[in-house]
Amino acid sequence: MENSTTQLSATTDIATLSKDNDIGKVLSLRWKRIEKANAKSILDFDKPLGDLLCKLRGALDASQKQIPSKTLNVNNINGIDRRRRSEAERLARDWNTSVSHLDGKTIGEIAESKRFSSTTALLAAVDKPEKDAKQAAAKAEKDKATTEVVVQKDATTAMDIATEVVLQLQLNNLTLADFRAALKEQIDCFTDAETAQLLPNATDNLKAVA
Predict the structure, then answer these.
(1) Model pLDDT for residues 129-177, shown as the tens digit of each residue
(2) Cα-flanking dihedrals φ and ψ of residue 154, to 5°?
(3) Is the CA virtual torsion 155, 157, 158, 161 positive or negative?
(4) How far is the C-alpha of 108 from the C-alpha of 89, rounded, in Å?
(5) DSSP state at residue 36
(6) Which residue from 86, 109, 84, 83 is spatially nearest to 96, judged by alpha carbons?
(7) 4 in helix, strand or coil?
(8) Apex CA 42: angle with CA 39 and CA 43, to 5°?
(9) How far apart are CA 90 and CA 47, in angstroms?
(10) CA atoms within 13 A on the CB side of 159
(11) Closest Cα to residue 78, out of 40, 17, 24, 9?
């Protein structure tokens, strides 16, 4: 394989290179083109970038969670957008993973079919069922909380109502006598027999209070 670092360009075939920093150099040159043209190349950029990142991560010590910036610099890929690197690494890592809701094809097969124009869109499609499930669970939790609030509101006691009445009388400069008169008028308007049963002897009780 060719390993010259003097004639590398964005069009250099990465398959002819064996040195990681040479591969990174070509990817860096391609990234400049991609940034300028806003291109979304999965096979020519994201896959080889992901392969390189997986290789670099595989060489880390067990205690290292991130690829050091120094390593990225040495391999000429530190200038590539972090999110693009992350998506590319996942693409390469899961390349042979089957996706049941996308006809059971592997991520690699889906990418090679060119069904999606970008790695971002491809991974979003892969993650859609999980995302939908999380959204449904969040909605269910929200609906449950709303129901609990409604139940709490429905559990208003007679003391709560009495307290609210007194408060409203004070806010509106009304007397208890005003309220008694208004309540009596409302009770007298009830003609439904079933409603009357809910308020047995209401008028007599009000008279007794007065």
Answers:
(1) 999 999 999 998 888 887 776 666 666 777 778 888 877 887 787 888 8
(2) -70, -20
(3) negative
(4) 13
(5) H
(6) 109
(7) coil
(8) 120
(9) 9
(10) 0
(11) 24
Three-state SS sequence of 47-83: HHHHHHHHHHHHCCCCCCCCCCHHHHHHCCCCCCCHH
Q: What is the pLDDT of residues 89-137, one digit of tens each?
A: 999 999 999 999 999 999 999 999 999 989 999 999 999 999 999 999 9
Give the C-alpha separation, 46 to 51, whole Å: 9
pTM to 2 decimals? Answer: 0.63
In contact, 178 and 210? CB cutoff 8 Å: no
Q: What tokens appear for 88 in the block?
A: 């590319």
Alpha carbon distance 190, 198 (integer Å) = 11
Q: Tell me, what's the pLDDT at 200? A: 55
Give the C-alpha separation, 201 to 81, whole Å: 79
Total Cβ atoms within 10 A of residue 26: 21
Amino acid found at 124: A
CB 145 within 8 A of CB 153: no
Distance between CA atoms of residues 134 and 112, nearest Å: 29
